Amino acid sequence: MEGLRDRTRRAVRAELAGRALELFAERGFDETTVDDIARAAGMSKRSFFRYFPTKEDVVFGEIETMGEQVAQEIAARPPQEEPWQCLHAVLRGWESRISAQADAMRLIESTPALRTRLLQKRDEARTRIIQALADRGMPPLEADLAAAAAGAALDAVAREWLRTGGAVDRLTLVDRAFTMLRPAFLT
Amino acid sequence: MEGLRDRTRRAVRAELAGRALELFAERGFDETTVDDIARAAGMSKRSFFRYFPTKEDVVFGEIETMGEQVAQEIAARPPQEEPWQCLHAVLRGWESRISAQADAMRLIESTPALRTRLLQKRDEARTRIIQALADRGMPPLEADLAAAAAGAALDAVAREWLRTGGAVDRLTLVDRAFTMLRPAFLT
DNA sequence: CCAAATATGACACCGAGTGCCACAGATGGC
DNA sequence: GCCATCTGTGGCACTCGGTGTCATATTTGG
Lengths: 187, 187
Known about the structure:
The structure is a homodimer.
Chain A: H1 4-27, H2 34-40, H3 45-51, H4 66-75, H5 83-99, H6 102-109, H7 112-135, H8 140-163, H9 170-181
Helix pairs in contact in A: 1-2, 2-3, 4-7, 5-8, 5-9, 7-8, 8-9
Chain B binds a DNA duplex through helix 3.
């Protein structure tokens, strides 16, 4: 039973993330040092790095274990389900979780360093998705193409959403993107 | 006429890049400091940064202005050409330039920091490609999806190529990927 | 030959991130 | 209640990538 230990740790993480986002909103990401964040949360720079591996990671809360989770969700789907349908369904659910953090996404998209970090995380997630698809019996190249296409769809959705100033419904966009981008080799 | 000045500059850049790649091959990217590279080329760390903006960039030679060039090549294509065909043709030519630097690509794909940098460059290129497609009259979301899909195809090709140990012909792979991934909304 | 532009080195500096150590407090068995 | 242990923390020194500044060659062009 991991109770108190974990709970305080989560609380401190949340505190740090909160303070950080405040400072980022005020001064911008690059103009805020890790020491600023740590001091604002009443601790030392050294301790900050005991809660987050990098300064960027303080922005990506739950998004952190994205790859692993998505891969598991794919594995949990009915095995005979069509791959593109499967990706659509899983990432659709994921997108709804993202929409909840609209301001974080805006910060990410407008900060090069964070944008880069997001690309990294997506890339890592893609690797795991390929593996998950391969486990369903898809040939490597096809799995790779499908995963890349799905990632591309999400990415395009994120940008279109920003382009329209957040007016459109993200889920609708996801559906449209997945329909439009369905690869030719997937029936 | 910019002759000698530019030529010596290019020579120094080449010298730096050469030394850097040697050291990277010996000790690895992370284990080589900028100071090591600079000293190996007989100059100071400060001067290194007068030739390359970052340590990563020493690996990406011509790849540097990728985005700009690709956008121009797209603009130079016959206006009535089908977008997917257009992307295929342009990136096909680009891929052949990449194949020439197989060892650099291997280094990049096996070094997280360089892989990240490549993602960045591709992302920047994608932005310009979207613009180039939009200039041809494509709606933003479609241009975005097409550009993202094309990037995904290249990425998948790079990985499949590594997967097979460089055995397959890259251009053939590109053709296959573009055929397989052709988005449904593009005729 | 001289003045302006350019290249370079040295130095100080910043910020992210790490290793190390010493110290506090909580935990758990006796 | 006591002692051993484990965990969290701060502080410090350090590495490395990257930048600003200045003083000093070296080159270029008139």
